[in-house]
Specification:
With 226 residues, the protein is an alpha/beta fold. It has one domain: Alpha-Beta Barrel (TIM Barrel), CATH 3.20.20.10. The protein contains nine helices and eight strands. Helix 4 crosses helix 5. The longest helix is centred in the N-terminal third of the chain and has 20 residues. The structure holds pyridoxal-5'-phosphate. The site of pyridoxal-5'-phosphate has 13 residues, from strand 8 and helix 9.
Length: 226
């Protein structure tokens, strides 16, 4: 086994253990491998270990990998900040975008999604910390944005994503993640129909799964330090 294969099975074991302690089925949590800064060989090695969903932060870098690996049935997620002038690249190449934080970006993505492709799968990024430097929508603004995004023809709103600041303890991490989970539950009560709660990274995936995450985005625990 390659190092990447070994690390992927270790991460999958962590996910299984966290699901078990939370009384959830392992199949309820998807592993997104975050391959930013790593090359095509690393993605191919992870794919050989059965990993099919990959996340990229830097749009140009992601588009290059997507083009080079077009022959593999990989699901590509854009998980980095999106400027207006990059929406076309995202709409044309990615399957998912998890970082929608304003309507203007969502409208451009919908307009620019090529008609021959499936709708772009979208998560709204939520800012639960209130930190000014962080992107994401304030929790009280998520419902209105979700309604507007749901009405766009070439997007499919799937859920919420958040990147809280690293918290000092498991309990503190859970408190932040549960804040996002509460917004997710509220939107579903309002009839928005979400199935994806993208929370947790290498360091805090256990707290995220314990708080209801359905997708963990894991980079360094699979590919090594960046
Ligand atoms: C880099 C990144 C990750 C992965 O972080 P690790 O700590 O390496 O697991 C997850 N989500 C986002 C949005 C990232 O930018």
């Amino acid at each position: 086994m390659t190092m990447i294969q070994t690390q992927i099975s270790a991460v999958r074991s962590r996910i299984d253990a966290a699901c078990q302690s939370a009384g959830r089925a392992s199949a309820a949590v998807t592993l997104l491998a975050v391959s930013k800064t790593f090359g095509i060989d690393a993605v191919t090695a992870a794919y050989a270990a059965g990993q099919t969903a990959f996340g990229e932060n830097y749009i140009q870098e992601g588009v290059q990998k997507i083009a080079a690996l077009r022959h593999l049935p990989i699901e590509w997620h854009c998980i980095g900040p999106i400027q207006s002038n990059k929406t076309r690249l995202v709409a044309e190449h990615f399957d998912w975008v998890q970082t929608v934080d304003r309507l203007k970006i969502a409208q451009r993505l919908s307009e620019q999604r090529p008609l021959g492709l499936a709708p772009l799968q979208v998560c709204i990024q939520v800012n639960v910390d209130g930190g000014v430097s962080k992107s994401g929508v304030a929790p009280q603004e998520v419902l209105a944005l979700a309604r507007a995004v749901s009405a766009l023809p070439h997007l499919r709103l799937r859920g919420l994503m958040s990147i809280p600041e690293p918290a000092p303890t498991f309990i503190a991490s859970c408190a932040l993640f549960k804040g996002v989970a509460a917004v997710f539950d509220q939107l579903n009560r309002e009839g928005i129909g979400l199935d994806t709660l993208s929370l947790g990274m290498s360091a805090d995936l256990e707290a995220a799964i314990s708080s209801g995450s359905t997708m963990v985005r894991v980079g360094s625990a699979i590919f090594g330090a960046r």
